[in-house]
Amino acid sequence: MSDHPIAILLDSRQAGGIETHVYQLGKALKNSGWPAEIWFFQKYQAEHPLEPALKDSAISFRYLNGKLPGLISALKDTQPLLLHSHGYKAGIFGRLAAVITRTPVVSTFHNGDPGEAMVRLYSLLDQLSSPISENIAISEEIARRWISAPHRIDNFVAVPENRPSLGTAIAFVGRLSYEKGPDLFLQLAKHQPHLPFRLYGSGPMEEVLQKQQINNVMFMGQVQSMEAHWRDIGLLCITSRFEGLPMVALEAMAHGVPVLSFPLGGLPELIVQGFNGWTSPVGDLNEMSNLLQFWDSLPEAVKWQLREACVATVINSYSSQAILPKILDVYQQAVQAKGYDWPNTLKESPAHGLANKKQDRSHTAG
Predict the structure, then answer these.
(1) What CATH architecture is 6-156+321-352?
(2) Of the given ranges (144-148, 251-255, 301-305), which has the lowest mean pLDDT?
């Protein structure tokens, strides 16, 4: 491997899909013997919500000062094997700093929502500056944007060893904001008043949603981790208006929970109709309600087969074992494109107790 860490950069103030992906990536790299550090571009509060999980998994992290010179200084001091950015702000500043310090850079494009106003502008700048980096798109829809030569690589999650008990609740898990469609989830609950619905998350629409007072909907609030809650859930509903490849869908399936969703972003590739979940036409709540009723009517033996199919889908195509080698291939391309040597994973593996040969970064700027 390498003495130089892989620096994973993001600008973040809350826990969401990108943050979950970054945590899974950091853990997968560490478990595979690659040193990795999570770099938060700026500290917005006393403790980022991701901190406890990073500490539990002994993944190194640091906070930068939110300014380009601070990132440049961190790159010069650390001399990472490469910088891997996530999100538009980290992408823009990460590429600028990487050019100045001659650091190999990889950027992952996650967001299925193009955004509005300034967010749309930043997203466009992120795409237009992408020729500087090797790029990863998590869905075909995102790959078709103005991103330079993107590699299509899916998100991934860890598969738990213990299977949860059979749950009955229909769940929404995510930020309570317009693009995630929690209002559509509540409308769906009105279609099926005899079924239990649970809404996990918080956000700008929370107060308005709670005022609707729908009897069969429980507001669970923001939870630190869904790990203890999946056992109570029988079906995950994704009613988003925009999506990439939501981590929550992969987490649900890894715990044996099938997904009912609109066919957005990478979801049509993930969900095999009737095998591990269902998709309904975008915005068609009547059809989604019919599929929900069909799921509820299935015998328990068939529901168990669905759960097993969900876990198998993740293990075969969306686990770290399936996806990490593809990401490492992109890393290797980025490093070699800068004229640096890619570490020899056999001769330099810490498991063999052999010394690493450090990369020569003596020609780094500054």
Answers:
(1) 3-Layer(aba) Sandwich (3.40)
(2) 144-148
Q: Are both 6-156+321-352 and 169-317 of the same fold? A: yes
Using CB atoms within 10 A of its CB, is residue 333 exposed (0-12), middle (13-18) or buried (19+)? Answer: middle
Residue with tokens 């044996």: 256
- DSSP state string for 102-123: T--EEEEE--S---SHHHHHHH
Q: Quick check: 342 pLDDT over 70?
A: yes
Sign of the Cα pseudo-torsion (238, 169, 248, 316, in order):
negative
Return the CATH number of 169-317, one of 3.40.50.2000, 3.40.50.2300, 3.40.190.10, 3.30.70.890: 3.40.50.2000
Cβ pair 239, 182 in contact under 8 A: yes
> pTM (2 decimals)?
0.83
What is the pLDDT at residue 115? 66
